[in-house]
Amino acid sequence: MTDPWVALEPGADPVERVRVLRRAHEAFTEGGAVARPVRSVVADSWRRSAKAGVGPEGTALVELTDGDLGAYRAEHPLARVMPLVRELLGTFAADGEHLLAVCDAQGRLLWVEGDPATRRRADRMNFVPGARWAESAVGTNAPGTAVAVDRPVQVFAAEHFIRRVQPWTCAAAPVHDPRTGRVLGAVDITGGDGLAHPHSLGFVQAVARAAESQLALLEPPGSTADGVELTALGRDEAHFLVGGRKVRLSRRHSEILVLLARHPEGLSGDELLCALYEDESVTPVTLRAELARLRRRLGAGLLGSRPYRLTVPVESDVAVVERRLETGAVMSAVTAYGGPLLPGSQAPAVVRLRHRLADGLRSALIARRDPDLLADWAHAPWGEDDLDVWRALAAVRPTAAVRARLRELEAELAAPPGWERGGGGLRRVSLGSQGLGG
């Protein structure tokens, strides 16, 4: 096969491929082995699905209904490009008895439109607006897998992890925020075996790129010409957007901007020194040199002094998550959370803010007891070892995989003195490695 993201190579017999894939799916769900000719993208997705505790007889759950769904869709960035998506994909879907679907970055379906008879059939498997079709919820499927791997992808027939979805074929492509590069969701076309063609994958990818281009032309809601947007979650080097110019910052400059964005009233040199450096021997001269370099990087007039402050309004992804948490919009806060704040930073004030933000989200997730939100956090890089979240997940979704991971974490927590976890188990550590030598 020339393109691993395309479901069927030219000339392949779809009936024979379905038969072979069903045998391979049965072998995997019974024994965990993946046989050829399962594509690597599908095999990897099956493994992630099983690890997340998805069963082949599962079904999608509807998370957003009525007013909640309407409010969430209205605020979502992709709402602004839906007229374009409908214009490009709508006629194709209707004429081919297919469905046009758009999901968010968590795999929740926001819009499902197209042929009425096909929609009625799709309703029976909860392929409906408001339903969660993330990989971690329903296994391998085009919209869920596209946002999981951040690539356009086709899923053909028995490549779907859940059996009730296997009569369907779909192709989806992720849509990104043109300013930050973050995945906003995916556009999808779902229907019969005829979609297992390279043209359908290229088509949805072209629609996704067109949506990104239109988003780039539209002024972001609530922004001003002089505003600065700061993205610092899940990355060691923050990005900021000012005047249409996106700049990647060094780690130290990222730390300074995060702190100044949090303190629009400004910070004195002494306050910044204490916030940035554990080493009390760092001099004000060192800080002034960093600020001078940052001022040149930002451009004229953006960084004031006495006190040090940003002279324009700043919107940061940290502030977005905090506001949503404060209003109880947990799902929306998780959607905006791209990962720990500047995870490699050791600046004292940044470390405190990073822990406070993550702890606030964790507490809200545990209190909400939503199994899909808990699973998303537990399977994210920052949640793999989060014992409290795994315990909460086991209480609401006690699958064998979840219970096994919880037992592993609890065993690691109970390691005797002189031992530590590593390499998937316990290992003895030397006195020196514990900081007791010398």
What's the count of strands?
A: 13
CATH architecture classification name of the largest domain: 2-Layer Sandwich
Overall pLDDT confidence: 85
By secondary-structure content and strand pairing, the structural class works out as alpha+beta
As for the number of domains, it is: 3
| CATH fold annotation of the largest domain | Beta-Lactamase
The helix count comes to: 17
Succession of helices and strands: HHHHEEHHHEEEHEEEHHHEEEHHHHHHEE
| Rg for CA atoms | 24 Å
CATH class identity of the largest domain = Alpha Beta
Major sheet attributes: 5 strands, antiparallel
What's the CATH H-level superfamily name of the largest domain? GAF domain
| Widest sheet, order of strands | 2-1-5-4-3
Describe this structure in words.
With 438 residues, the protein is α+β, with helices and mostly antiparallel strands. The protein folds into 3 domains: 14-217, Beta-Lactamase; 228-316, Winged helix-like DNA-binding domain superfamily/Winged helix DNA-binding domain (Arc Repressor Mutant, subunit A); 318-434, no CATH class. It contains 17 helices and 13 strands. The strands form 4 sheets. It has a 5-stranded antiparallel β-sheet, with helices on both faces. A 4-stranded mixed β-sheet has the order 8-7-6-11. The protein has a two-stranded antiparallel ribbon with strand order 9-10. Helix 12 (317-326) runs antiparallel to helix 13 (330-336) and helix 12 (317-326) runs parallel beside helix 14. It is globular, with a radius of gyration of 24 Å.
